[in-house]
């Protein structure tokens, strides 16, 4: 099964650091970095508005635990957003590319 993992970062520097590590370590096939999103959330009793960078991470379910651990180790937030969504359907060539990109010996 394939996953789309969402993760917000405080800035491009953190987003690039996490993205590079995930792809280099074959925990993700691809990460899209989407700058300039506005997040509205409750934190420590206050409603916060922040500009953040959204990561869209494509991976396989068997890589999720290691991917989550790597994000937590690199992320500057105390509680980073790490949400995995199952990819129900997709182009078979793209999904095969994800599989090939995550192989240890490729």
UniProtKB/TrEMBL annotation:
GO terms for biological process: response to metal ion. One of its GO terms (molecular function) is copper ion binding. Belongs to the CutA family. This is Divalent-cation tolerance protein CutA. It comes from Thalassomonas viridans.
